TrEMBL record, chain A:
Transmembrane segments: 21-44, 277-295
Protein name: Cytochrome B6
Domain of life: Bacteria
Keywords: Membrane, Transmembrane, Transmembrane helix
Keyword Membrane: yes
TrEMBL record, chain B:
Molecular function as annotated in GO: electron transfer activity; oxidoreductase activity
Organism: Ferroacidibacillus organovorans
Protein name, UniProt field: Cytochrome B6
UniProt cross-references to InterPro entries, sorted A to Z: Cyt_b/b6_N (IPR005797), Cytb/b6-like_sf (IPR027387), Di-haem_cyt_TM (IPR016174)
Gene Ontology terms describing biological process: respiratory electron transport chain
Length: 361, 204
């Protein structure tokens, strides 16, 4: 009979009784007690989401600055680029690229968002219609029919004034200046936000109507300083290991540590394309993990490390204690089967030593 | 070639009842490390069970009612347990070189399951409906955009994120875990590394 490589069928090893169903049920019981117990004792973290109404009430100047940035094109989303727009008047600021490789641009602008129109003009048109507000209507008409240079002049003047603004009884008070219709527009935007209706006005646009679930509009409005200020106060920014931990004392998604770690070191923490670099670095590392069985060196590493001796210490003790192969008539094949890479047993044959060993286990 | 016959032959040979529901194990299967796999699976059962109840009642319920909050806590700790035991399982299996002797597919499917779990958990965090979700949505939009994935997944669209979390990724994950289990059961548990040549000679 041909003496070939022994197929390491695990049934050829000595066996012992095992109750898979019982083990599964016991495991479910242990894990269930742990999980339900932890849930009852510790609960789960939850901090209510921030609304632009809250921001408007607590930081009215910030809301006006945000809206003005959206109107004038200085806001980050105004000039973001794909997938929201092609930048502000063709100038995109946030397109990530690694040596010309820029997958961000591949899909065009599937979620179109023009901040001047969507964040300011359209919500204010809704407000003017809802409240029959003639001065606001006139202000909107005046702004939209003005030249771009004139619009930018008003916007810049009001932006400078907002830097010196004070708040009196919830209203923004600025030094006098030539703001055209912009001051009235911004004050109305603030009022709309304070009422809580701005979110609806924004989200009905990304939803293409109502009765849908896309809240991009509201998130894109808030995503700048409004949310960053709050996140910074609770150590949630990217450079503070942001997503890696929860904002409460309970554990967060710690399994993202390798990914979050990248954001703490250059070039990921300093490059404008840091997100793209981090994503593809993690992608490459993950492929390495998937391909471990075929990566030379890495696939032999666990054999060199002594950890497997600890995991299978009972088995190795068992072999030492038995020293069974010494007296086995099939000594060579027995030894190879237990300890060698290639077995020497005849094909289809079970070494007799196993049977004697099985009795002692 | 008859595909049906081939599939039936292969399934009959590999998926015997002795393999699927073994009442015996090789003697070397005797370590706490072997428990991490079944603990991972048990945690996944609690993730799915609590998730089904939560999705049946809807996001408003688990964000506003006390019973909903408790179920959300159960879901949260199930996920924590799942990742703890998954990580231990992954690390343990690495040290055991468990891809050896025809088990590479088992390893690959297990690693893919881990990746899908991470994305599944991430979409879950975005479905919490609180500041954490809100903040990480706006932060991760830059990551998804940079990676070129936002054309497929609008991370700011709650409807899409929630659908991915409760249907698409769970279906993929369950399929992968099922395949992983079948691969483990059809091949059996990886045998220990042989002892070194030097030690073997001493024994002889």
């Amino acid at each position: 009979m041909k003496r070939g490589r022994f197929a390491r069928d695990t049934l050829r090893f000595p066996q012992r009784d095992f109750d898979m169903v019982k083990e599964g049920v016991i495991s479910l019981g242990i894990i269930g007690v742990l999980i339900v117990g932890a849930a009852a004792i510790f609960g789960a973290p939850y901090r209510p989401a921030i609304t632009n109404k809250q921001v408007a009430l607590s930081s009215p100047v910030l809301i006006e600055q945000t809206a003005l940035g959206d109107l004038s094109g200085t806001g980050s989303i105004a000039s973001y680029g794909p997938p929201y727009n092609n930048g502000w008047h063709g100038q995109a600021q946030s397109i990530q690229s690694i040596m010309g490789f820029s997958p961000q641009t591949w899909w065009g602008t599937p979620y179109p968002w023009n901040t001047a129109q969507n964040d300011v003009i359209i919500p204010l048109q809704m407000l003017a219609t809802a409240s029959a507000n003639a001065p606001l209507n006139q202000a909107l008409t005046q702004y939209q029919s003005a030249s771009y240079a004139q619009q930018q002049q008003w916007d810049t003047n009001y932006s400078n004034a907002l830097n010196k603004a004070t708040v009196a009884a919830g209203r923004v008070v600025t030094p006098f200046g030539n703001f055209g219709p912009v001051a009235l527009m911004m004050n109305n935007e603030l009022q709309l936000a304070k009422s809580g209706l701005l979110s609806g006005a924004l989200n009905r646009q990304t939803n293409g109507g109502v009765y849908r679930y896309d809240v991009s509009g509201d998130l894109l409005f808030l995503q700048g300083a409004a949310l960053h200020n709050i996140a910074n106060s609770i150590n949630m920014q990217g450079g503070q290991w942001g997503i890696n931990h929860d904002e409460a004392a309970l554990p967060g998604p710690w399994w993202l540590t390798p990914y979050t770690f990248l954001y703490q070191i250059p070039p990921y923490s300093t490059s404008a394309s840091g997100d793209e670099m981090a994503a593809y670095t993690i992608g490459i590392l993950f492929m390495l993990l998937v391909l471990v069985p075929w990566v030379p060196g890495l696939n032999k590493l666990p054999k060199l490390l002594p950890v497997h001796r600890l995991i299978w210490r009972d088995w190795y003790h068992f072999l030492d204690k038995q020293n069974a192969c010494v007296s086995c008539p099939l000594r060579d094949s027995c030894r190879q089967e237990f300890r060698g890479k290639k077995g020497g047993a005849l094909s289809g044959e079970t070494p007799r030593c196993y049977q004697s060993l099985s009795k002692d286990v | 070639m008859n595909w049906t016959k081939s599939l039936r032959k292969s399934a009959t040979e590999k998926l015997t009842w002795d393999n699927l529901l073994p009442s015996e194990q090789p003697v070397y299967v005797n370590s706490l490390v072997y428990s991490f796999g079944v603990f991972t699976l048990s945690s996944l059962v609690f993730c799915i069970a609590s998730g089904i109840i939560m999705s049946a009642k809807g996001p408003l319920w688990y964000q506003t009612s006390s019973l909903g909050e408790f179920l959300r806590s159960v879901h949260y700790w199930s996920v924590q347990a799942f990742f703890f035991f998954t990580t231990m399982h992954l690390v343990g299996q690495f040290f055991m070189g468990s891809w050896r002797e025809g088990r590479a597919l088992t390893w690959v499917v297990g690693a893919l399951s881990f990746a899908v779990s991470v994305i599944e958990a991430f979409t879950g965090y975005l479905s919490r409906g609180d500041f954490f979700s809100q903040w990480n949505q706006v932060q991760s939009k830059d990551a998804f955009n940079g990676a070129g994935l936002d054309g497929f997944i609008n991370i700011l669209n709650n409807g899409q994120v929630y659908g991915l979390h409760i249907a698409v990724f769970p279906a993929i994950l369950i399929a992968l875990v099922g395949l992983h289990l079948l691969a483990v059961r059809s091949k059996g548990v990886v045998p220990p590394y042989p002892i070194s040549a030097k030690k073997r000679d001493e024994q002889a």
